[in-house]
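Methods: example folding runs. The two proteins below were folded one after another, and each record is reproduced exactly as written to the output file, sequence line first and structure-token line second.
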Amino acid sequence: MDILPKMPIRPENKKKYPKYWKYLSFWIRVGRAKNKCEKCGARNHKPHPKTGRKVTLTVAHIDFNEKNNKLRNLKALCNKCHNSHDVRKRIKGMKKREAVKRRKYVKNAEKAWKSRRRIIKG
């Protein structure tokens, strides 16, 4: 049985993290940060002092490079601090995913239009 909690990583990003990530993440959160956010000091699994919601510590890559796992590049952050750290990157990712959806929609609409024109000309 594994005592380390599973950390939510998007399936498409799993290959970016090393196999020992859960151990490294655990050491950063519990060993180095002593179960507290390294930015605001919120305690893990306790209500956040500002939001009142339960804190879940996660490990952030300061330079946003998931392959750079040097200790000085990793920081234990609460949900609030991690979200504010990643906000620009997340917005960029959401826009990128939305653009892909839009292109697929347009492509499918064009195919449908062409097939209708063939039927009409038929």
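Second run, written to the same file directly after the first:
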Amino acid sequence: MADSLPGGPAGPAHHPGAAPGPVGIVLVSHSEAVARGLRELVLQVGGPDAAVASAGGTEDGRIGTSEARISHAIASVDRGSGVVVLADLGSAVLTARAVLADLPAGEPGTVLVDAPFVEGAVAAAVIAGTRAELAAVCAAAEEAWHARKL
């Protein structure tokens, strides 16, 4: 289930009046290395226009999550079509929810999705790469719960 609330360098942000770009993707992890590594993987499958940012660890390099890093990541990938946020563990979800609650109202918005971190991010990137709408990108991430490995 997604929490729908308004509101790493991923390329230029959306400017009013410009044509919207693909749905952005933000990867929130307790580990900066995990978030960056997943971003690298997602960029490989998302194509050259992918808008993907990582928000991992704390500002002082510890394990944890950072509201400032999440806020910056969302702003860096918002190209006017919405942003999907995926989190690795429960407290990352809480931090992301706090950030989303502070975003200004507006459409199409930023959505925290309930999806497996790696598989959901890859699925979201593939669908975002087709210039699909925010709802379709969210659905692809959430459907990754059903992907079997064996």
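Comment on the second run: The first strand starts at residue 3 and ends at 5.
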